[in-house]
Amino acid sequence: MTELEREIRSEIAARGPMSFERFMSLALYHPELGYYRSRHDPFGIAGDYYTSSQLQPVFGRLIADQIARWRLQAGSAAGFTTVELGAGRGETAREIRSRLPEVPYIEVEHRMGDLPEHMTGVIFSNEFFDALPVHVVRCGEQGILERFVGLEEGKLTWVEAEPSSPAIVEYVQRFAPALARWQVIEVNLEALKWTERIASSLDRGWVVTIDYGYTADEIAGGKRFPEGSLMSYYRHSAYEDVLRDPGERDITAHVNFTALAEYGDSLGLRALPLQTQAQFLLSIGQADGFDSAVAGRTQTEVERHRLQLKTLLYGMGETFRVLVQEKL
To answer: Average pLDDT per run of 10 along the chain, which is 328 residues long?
Structure first.
């Protein structure tokens, strides 16, 4: 049993079942014991998973090239800034700073750092929204039921009860209105709060969200993820038991792109058509046939960069999606 699990059990014993949003928040972001707050590096061979951010310099070069195009479109506006949400180890940040040294680059982490009060530029994230704590609900015969984390026979387990907030039901009705009976879905209220922060900060520019996820139409009637999309990750393996070993495993939920797009639109962020990562990166690199992205000092470097590009386009290209929103 992890030290964090002991704390969670004590809280449940004292206060009753906790929302999964609270559980996930503690599991990932507890100040000392959370997965992203510990000394453990979750990325790479020795970690639990890879992201596009590890495929450098190609990924950063392509993102930098798109940022440069948008900067020109904005008339090379003074103060044009790039903000990255969830920069992690900073691999992408280093590449973009190297490529665009004249463009200020701000890194903002979950619960650490602030968005500028007013900015023109790009707010970029790669696998940020999937790690925001979520509520979990199920469609029952009498309506929406929320799944809480409780204790039963000495084990952490799911407990169902009435939703802890009217906002949870409103989210489902607005952004996932055609669920099948008994279907399970994650409700990401924190993603809506981040969308509000982004819309408030961005006076003019673009929002780029790269993540894995779905639209409301794709999950309607239980066509996809009838049991929800929650997964935990440990040593490059995925597990459905997200209550196990809190603090030692990553936990993610697929992003509801319909929610991001429609809620953003209500705040002045116009959503462009949702793309796959492959489509997005192809639109950037096709101008020069990706020559700039795969350039290197030696032929060995060039070959390594070509392998990175292949992984970005084909290994991850259809798995990840890209939502671009603009405020012009």
So the answer is: 96 97 97 82 51 82 97 86 92 94 94 92 97 96 94 95 97 96 97 98 97 97 96 86 95 98 98 97 94 94 93 90 97
Write out the E strands in the chain. Answer: 18-19, 81-85, 105-108, 119-126, 135-140, 143-152, 155-161, 184-187, 202-211, 213-214, 231-234, 237-239, 250-252, 255-256, 270-271, 275-276, 321-327
Q: DSSP readout, 163-220?
A: -S-HHHHHHHHHHSTTPPTT-EEEE-HHHHHHHHHHHHHEEEEEEEEEE-EE-HHHHG
| Residue listed under structure tokens 């969830």 | 86
Token representation of residue 233: 């990750």
Correct CATH for 3-327 of 3.30.430.20, 3.30.2350.10, 3.40.50.12710, 3.40.640.10: 3.40.50.12710
Q: Tokens 């020109």 sit at which residue?
A: 72
Strands (E), 231-302: 231-234, 237-239, 250-252, 255-256, 270-271, 275-276
pTM given for the model: 0.93
